[in-house]
Amino acid sequence: MNKINLGLIGYGNVGSGVVKFLQTRANYFRNKFHTEFVLKTICDRSTRDKNFSGLGDVQATTDINQVLNDPSIDVVIELIGGIHPAKEIVLGALKNGKHVVTANKELLAHHAQELFREVHKRDKNIYFESSVMAGVPVISMLTHGIAGNVVSRLYGIINGTCNFILTEMTKNDCTFSQALEKAQKKGFAEANPKLDISGMDSAHKLAILTSLTLGKFLKIEDIYTEGITHISHVDIEHAESMNLTIKLLGIAKRVENAIEARVHPTLISKDHPLASINGIYNALFLSTEPLGDILISGEGAGQMAAASGVISDLLNLASRTGSEASNMLGNLYTEAPDRKVTKIDEIKTRFYLRFIATDKPGVLSTITGILGKHGISINSVTQKAHIRRSTVPVIMLTDYAPEKNLRIALEKIFRLSIVKSMPVAIRMENLS
Question: Is residue 209 packed enough to be buried (19+ CB in 10 Å), middle (13-18) or exposed (0-12)?
């Protein structure tokens, strides 16, 4: 029987889910994997309001060092999130000869390369399945299942909160604020949802995916990031009429020796598999060689979904006993040579544009004239039949246009007296 002693730092929603998982499946782990996981110590910033009943001899503490400095603990599970003191915890665990299991996407997005260098120095590993898409085995797939394939592009619905909000707006005619409130009541969104709805949570996850697939450790500032707060029912209705849907996508592509990485709301065809991913479900679509296109999907949020990823890391770790830790593919710290990052201004995409403009003759020609002067061609213009009123929405679809040119044109258009609010631009992607 393989016995592995654990120290858990962070006894919140996911941490308590991990403990529940360990308790209810203990016999299963012993019988199938011949492994016994022994939870020795739980550390949390406060133990007064936590329920430790039924945990037997488990020690509860607020002192991180009681976990890091205990020579009997083999694995530290870090579930506090954020960068500090999480970074110090992970480095301390590695330096004290312990493996680390973490769900901390923000830490890995900012410091993975540094942490993986420490992994090779100490010959211990960091396991991080739950950092992207919770318990859906994305990390395992990339580092084991398709490790021999070359990935040229990936598209990910990697934030369950935003996907739930956009689904509610589309399917149930909710406003953005109504959908957000519903997500918070169901526990799918934090009391302060800024990290999710701003797109930053997706950017953290995209940084991890890009390092594993495209051979580049990106700085977060290299990833263009845009949230979903400007999406309205008008946009959703027009998307529906064009057989399109709006998803917050994390996008990374390799073109020759350059990489582009961006997070933003995206119009995609309803015929593509990603269009059917709704609610809190996440999905990752990859183009690979020689395997071809791959889609993996599952629940990307929730206590037991995240706990499941942590448990899979523990079982993966248990199966590697006796092997050289630093050989694990997921902990590589080297990069592809001379791989550059393409800035958002240099990228060309098609756009859906929405203007709220004065309802009078000549408005369309004025707007299209400014777009034309900046090299932006219009494929179609839509203005629904209406009773004459002071302002109306005008919808345009562009041909491929440089981001920089479009941004300059929209700023000029916004300054026109005939335009009554900031124009909305949503990028369009052909995923086929």
Answer: buried
d(CA 96, CA 124): 10
Angstrom distance (rounded) from CA 93 to CA 241: 54
Question: How do residues 287-324 score in pLDDT, each as one tens digit?
Answer: 999 999 999 999 988 899 999 999 999 999 999 877 78
Catalytic center residues:
205
Gap between the Cα atoms of 120 and 332, Å rounded? 8
- Each residue of 120-172: pLDDT tens digit? 999 999 999 999 999 999 999 999 999 999 999 999 999 999 999 999 999 99
Residue 308 CA: distances (Å) to CA of 313, 378, 394 = 9, 48, 47
CB contact set of 367 (below 8 Å; sequence gap of 6+): 355, 357, 394, 396, 413, 416, 419
Residue pair 15/8 in contact by the 8 Å Cβ criterion: yes
pTM of the model: 0.96
Token pair, residue 129, equals: 């399945």
Task: Find the length of the chain.
Answer: 432
What's the CA angle centered on 392, arms 390 and 395, to 5 degrees? 160
pLDDT digits (tens, 9 = 90+) for 93-120: 999 999 999 999 999 999 999 999 999 9
Q: Is omega for the bond preceding 423 within 30 degrees of 0, making it cis? A: no
Taking the C-alpha atoms of 227, 232, 233 and 237 in order, what is their torsion angle to the nearest 10 degrees?
A: -70
